[in-house]
Design goal:
heterodimer; A: alpha+beta; Aminopeptidase; 8-stranded mixed sheet; 4 helices; 8 strands; 30% strand; B: alpha/beta; Rossmann fold; 5-stranded parallel sheet
Chain lengths: 174, 124
């Protein structure tokens, strides 16, 4: 589907904070969310190589390490924020241009760091970073049974645009 | 094996076409191609037909090519079940800009409703 066919809400969501931001997660770990910088790629690949296969969705992250490298290369062409615990990547959120003035969003939290409130900070920091870089239209798809993800997206203001297939399509204006 | 390939004109359906022709040539499958109208594709059935004919010109294979009208998913299932096909082959979905796989509506419908084995072909 092209974003030509996609309609975005009139009303802007937000405001969202811009990275960097620091917080203590629900497990008492100090976490810092920063915009992606050159040199972060290796730590990012490391998180994805170690990613629980059960947490994969819609074919990503790829299972093979060689494919993870290529995939991360594609993502870092877009806008990215990373949640760091020390020098370890706890989570990553990304906006990839769709070539049609809108951006596709995805967020991943490593299994060690899930259910600790990191995703919620990470997605807000990404949206703040996106807005700061002139992005307005954001969309994503999510498997309809992934309730945790769907409610995270709704919390930041995403609306369901289409629910006819296995995946929901959700849209946001920032 | 009696194989029914459904093509609606999306890029992944042409990937399925190429793979299926290769496999049918090697294995001697009895291949039928059903051209359907995919509302998700911008290509018309005529354009799809031309593309299929071009690909068929390159192989030595007798293939029955039909244009199926009506609801694409249910037409494919009807033909497959009525005529005793062993397998339905479809494109395995398109990738979003960040690489998420999204199945087409026809594939979703056929997967959920088919009594015949379904094969989805994905670009490697």
């Amino acid at each position: 589907m092209n974003s030509d066919d996609r309609s975005f809400p009139e009303k802007r969501a937000g405001p969202f904070p811009e990275p960097p931001l620091s917080f203590t997660d629900r497990e008492g770990r100090d976490v810092e969310v920063r915009a992606y910088e050159e040199g972060d790629e290796e730590a990012l690949v490391e998180m994805y190589v170690d990613f629980d296969p059960a947490d994969r969705a819609q074919g990503i992250p790829p299972a093979l390490e060689s494919r993870v490298h290529d995939w991360v290369d594609t993502l870092v062409e877009g806008l990215n924020v990373i949640a760091w615990h020390g020098d370890e990547v706890a989570g990553h959120a990304t906006l990839v241009p769709d070539g049609d003035e809108a951006w596709e969003l995805a967020i991943f939290v490593h299994q060690t760091y899930q259910r600790a409130g990191i995703g919620s900070k990470l997605i807000r920091a990404l949206l703040g970073h996106g807005k700061d870089n002139g992005i307005e239209k954001v969309w994503l798809t999510v498997e309809r049974w992934n309730r945790a993800a769907v409610s995270l997206y709704e919390d930041v203001g995403f609306e369901t645009a289409s629910s006819e297939s296995f995946e929901l399509e959700m849209v946001l204006r920032i | 094996m009696k194989v029914l390939l459904g093509i609606g004109g999306s890029d992944d359906s042409f990937t399925a076409l190429e793979e299926t022709l290769e496999r049918a040539t090697a294995a001697g499958d009895d291949l039928t191609i059903g051209i359907v109208e995919n509302p998700e594709s911008e290509r018309t059935p005529e354009e799809v037909r031309n593309r299929v004919d071009e690909e068929l010109a390159d192989v030595e294979l007798g293939v029955d090519v039909r244009t199926l009208s009506g609801d694409p998913g249910s037409e494919l299932l009807d033909v497959a079940e009525r005529e005793g096909f062993d397998q339905i082959v479809l494109g395995g979905g398109q990738r979003s800009p960040m690489g998420k796989i999204k199945l087409g509506h026809i594939a979703e419908f056929v997967l959920l409703n088919s009594h015949v084995t379904v094969k989805l072909v994905r670009e490697s």
